[in-house]
Design brief:
The chain is mainly α. It has a domain at 1-45: lambda repressor-like DNA-binding domains (434 Repressor (Amino-terminal Domain), Orthogonal Bundle), CATH 1.10.260.40. It is 52% helix and 0% strand. Helix 1 crosses helix 3 (32-41).
Protein backbone atom coordinates (compact mmCIF):
# COMPACT_ATOMS: atom_id res chain seq x y z
CA UNK A 1 0.00 0.00 0.00
CA UNK A 2 2.85 2.42 0.79
CA UNK A 3 4.13 2.05 -2.79
CA UNK A 4 0.61 2.49 -4.19
CA UNK A 5 0.69 -0.80 -6.12
CA UNK A 6 -2.17 -3.17 -6.71
CA UNK A 7 -1.90 -6.85 -5.92
CA UNK A 8 -1.99 -7.56 -9.63
CA UNK A 9 0.93 -5.20 -10.38
CA UNK A 10 3.04 -6.51 -7.53
CA UNK A 11 2.33 -10.15 -8.36
CA UNK A 12 3.22 -9.60 -12.02
CA UNK A 13 6.49 -7.82 -11.09
CA UNK A 14 7.40 -10.64 -8.71
CA UNK A 15 6.49 -13.35 -11.21
CA UNK A 16 3.84 -14.96 -9.02
CA UNK A 17 0.07 -15.22 -9.20
CA UNK A 18 -2.21 -12.74 -7.47
CA UNK A 19 -3.68 -15.55 -5.38
CA UNK A 20 -0.19 -16.51 -4.14
CA UNK A 21 0.44 -12.89 -3.17
CA UNK A 22 -2.88 -12.88 -1.36
CA UNK A 23 -1.81 -15.99 0.58
CA UNK A 24 1.41 -14.24 1.58
CA UNK A 25 -0.47 -11.15 2.74
CA UNK A 26 -2.75 -13.29 4.91
CA UNK A 27 0.19 -15.10 6.50
CA UNK A 28 -0.55 -18.41 4.85
CA UNK A 29 2.14 -20.86 3.80
CA UNK A 30 4.21 -19.85 0.77
CA UNK A 31 7.70 -20.81 -0.31
CA UNK A 32 10.75 -18.89 0.83
CA UNK A 33 11.50 -18.13 -2.81
CA UNK A 34 8.09 -16.45 -3.19
CA UNK A 35 8.74 -14.32 -0.14
CA UNK A 36 12.16 -13.29 -1.47
CA UNK A 37 10.73 -12.44 -4.89
CA UNK A 38 8.10 -10.16 -3.35
CA UNK A 39 10.61 -8.54 -0.98
CA UNK A 40 12.98 -7.90 -3.88
CA UNK A 41 10.26 -6.18 -5.92
CA UNK A 42 9.29 -4.08 -2.89
CA UNK A 43 12.98 -3.25 -2.27
CA UNK A 44 12.66 -4.71 1.25
CA UNK A 45 15.24 -7.50 1.23
CA UNK A 46 16.86 -5.87 4.26
CA UNK A 47 14.25 -7.46 6.52
CA UNK A 48 15.95 -10.81 5.88
CA UNK A 49 18.94 -9.56 7.94
CA UNK A 50 16.98 -10.48 11.06
CA UNK A 51 17.49 -14.14 10.13
CA UNK A 52 21.30 -14.05 10.05
CA UNK A 53 22.70 -16.87 12.15
CA UNK A 54 25.57 -15.81 14.38
CA UNK A 55 28.18 -18.31 15.46
CA UNK A 56 27.74 -18.27 19.22
CA UNK A 57 28.46 -21.00 21.75
CA UNK A 58 25.54 -23.14 22.79
CA UNK A 59 24.00 -22.65 26.25
CA UNK A 60 25.39 -26.05 27.23
CA UNK A 61 28.93 -25.03 26.23
CA UNK A 62 28.55 -21.78 28.21
CA UNK A 63 27.36 -23.69 31.28
CA UNK A 64 30.34 -26.07 31.07
CA UNK A 65 32.75 -23.12 30.75
CA UNK A 66 31.17 -21.40 33.76
CA UNK A 67 31.45 -24.59 35.80
CA UNK A 68 35.24 -24.60 35.50
CA UNK A 69 35.61 -21.00 36.70
CA UNK A 70 36.34 -20.64 40.41
CA UNK A 71 33.48 -18.91 42.13
CA UNK A 72 35.24 -18.13 45.44
CA UNK A 73 38.35 -18.87 47.40
CA UNK A 74 38.33 -22.15 49.25
CA UNK A 75 39.08 -22.40 52.97
CA UNK A 76 41.87 -24.50 54.33
CA UNK A 77 40.86 -27.46 56.40
CA UNK A 78 41.26 -27.10 60.19
CA UNK A 79 43.99 -29.77 60.19
CA UNK A 80 46.16 -27.79 57.76
CA UNK A 81 45.56 -24.56 59.68
CA UNK A 82 46.58 -26.22 62.94
CA UNK A 83 49.74 -27.67 61.33
CA UNK A 84 50.71 -24.22 60.04
CA UNK A 85 50.16 -22.64 63.46
CA UNK A 86 52.30 -25.26 65.18
CA UNK A 87 55.04 -24.92 62.54
CA UNK A 88 55.04 -21.12 62.88
CA UNK A 89 55.84 -21.29 66.63
Amino acid sequence: MEQNRTQEELAKSAGISRSTLSLLERGETVTLMTLIQVLRVLDQLGVMDFFVVKDEPSPLALAKAQKSIRKRAGRRSNKKQNENIVNDW
